[in-house]
Fold each of these.
Amino acid sequence: MLQQIAKIVTLPTAAATIIYPPALAAATDTTTTIARTITDSSVVLNNDGSRVQVPLEYIQALDAYVVHYYLFGERFGAIVDTGSPFLTCPSTCSAWSYKYKWGCYHPERTFDSGLSNTIEGFDNNQGKVVWRKAGFSFDEDLQPQQNLTFGVFGGVFFGLIKDTDKWIRPSFLGQTGYKSFCVDLRDNSTLTLSKQAMILGDDYIPLTRDLNRRYKAPVVHYIAKAAGFIVNGLPLKLDVRTPTYVIFDTGLSGMAVSDELYQGRNLQARKNREKSLWGEVKVSFQTKAGDEVELSARKPITTPLGQDTPWTKFKGNLIVLGLAFLDGTSMSIDIDDNKLQLKK
């Protein structure tokens, strides 16, 4: 849910506001052997606790994948989101949403995080977030609890962005020490978290941190440079003088593109009298080994990013790819090494 890539506003009370834009694997190569399994939950943990694999559940009404976990002894479900950084839980109790029970918040079972409240926006829903601490685990019988900071909010997202600017509230991965993850959206969908690198060799797509380092995005999104962008068999002309960045976001169902790309595609479709604006979309990338990797989708729900991006000096093209492109694919990311690997 790369929801809002971000307008950032400082509140008069010194709390920060982050508004994220609308809405990123069987584990690949590894040197660690998974050794322990709990059949009830299908959570798998290796002997030293450095690697954990948890099942994902697809919720059709949401068009999203959900992971289950425990906070203060309560079982929660949250959307797996490679476009946001935070661990969250709902601010309401015993609420069914989209025929799915997210979990019940009990403030008396939590304790003070030492952080002031903030105003956050997810998917155009904006409101106060209370930052608390509580014991977290994927399986209470298998994994020791770890006290983590989490946000109490109207939405429920399991954020997998690790690196952020210092003033941003703590990310889930930043607190837990996991350096790599794999979202496998093929058969028997799973999420694997690892404290060691998971990608071997040169069969990976290099990631860039330009939006954070050069254009002051507050979080480090998982971004690669596109080698090609084809719609309905026609290459969409990309300005070679400016980069075309692609953000991988499992919390987004379709695709979002920068205004210039959206308008350029409109003009191209009208000129060619095409029946479908976004009929078949293909986005290609070059691996470190020099091979080409392609993601594609048929009729993805596509929206313009508008003015939601906060990087006023950024003049390039921006594409956000969601589940329409990533479903049925394994995506592994070694965060510190800036590597992303896709497998069908």
Amino acid sequence: MFRLCTLSHLRVRGSLAFQVHSTRSNTQNVMALIKDLREKTNAGILDCKAALEHSKGDINEAIEWLRKKGVSRASKLSSRAANEGGIVVNETDIQVTMLEINSETDFVSRNAKFHVFASQICELAHSCSVEKMDSATNSPVLAISELTTKTLPDPINPASIVPISDALKSLSANFGENLLLSRGVKLSVESKEKGVVASYVHNAIGPNVGTIGCAIALSCDSLNNEQRTKLKSIASSIALHIAGCPPRFLSIQNCSAEDIEKEKQVYIENAKQSGKPDNVIAKMVDGKMGKFYEEVVLNEQFSVTEEKPTKISQILKREEKNLGITNLKITSFARFRCGENN
């Protein structure tokens, strides 16, 4: 608690490091400092008082004191489950990045500070290295350990430039919840003249932040500006489809031999129970596998955005002809649903 005295300057007495003049105006100034500090840090009143006492009324030092205290607090939160959060996307002309950032509750993930922080990280992700390729979707998976070393303004004390790993701890302590940077991808095309990227967020909770995120890259031999604008619209439509009808693989060639064999064995065993000849069983299994591909392979799926039943591969062929371009194909895609891997 602040002790009122007749001194017009600051001095230390025992454990009290912050004292103010007892006039009404100075009391109001003290309360204004506390209010300002709370608005900037979201810290509790007692923590703000302690920080101002420690810093002798210096607001910037008080923020830094709270930030350091928050790192310690964040380490205690790190073991707690974080299954909520948001999927954030960021696009340039030739590249789209997508990240999943988890929190413990949607109360935090709907906060504007969370959205700003997520967007800043996603923008930095454009320069992050790729750790590996996802063989099912052809999507380049980001090296999260490298991404967390990149720097940005501390979300609580913007005057300080800190690594993303420290910024996560700072914001975690501020919210009182565990925050995790879980995963990310970076899809790209060779140039504006040879393809487009697009993204879509479903159930938006902030600018370019939602509970489901989809990203896609389409390539072709060459594009002019008019063709590019139209192809961008087609890519966006397919991204919307991916959100509503989640595929596991880009093409049949991307299906693993293990997955194909596993499905075949299930269908063979079921077909044998019919007592039909082997040649009939083989045709039955082929038909079942065709249905399997239509469910899990993007190119084989029927688009949810078309009025008539039309496969994604058929849309590509149709638009290739309509736009007057060649070798149009989906080179990669990704779909994140918040919390699905936790």
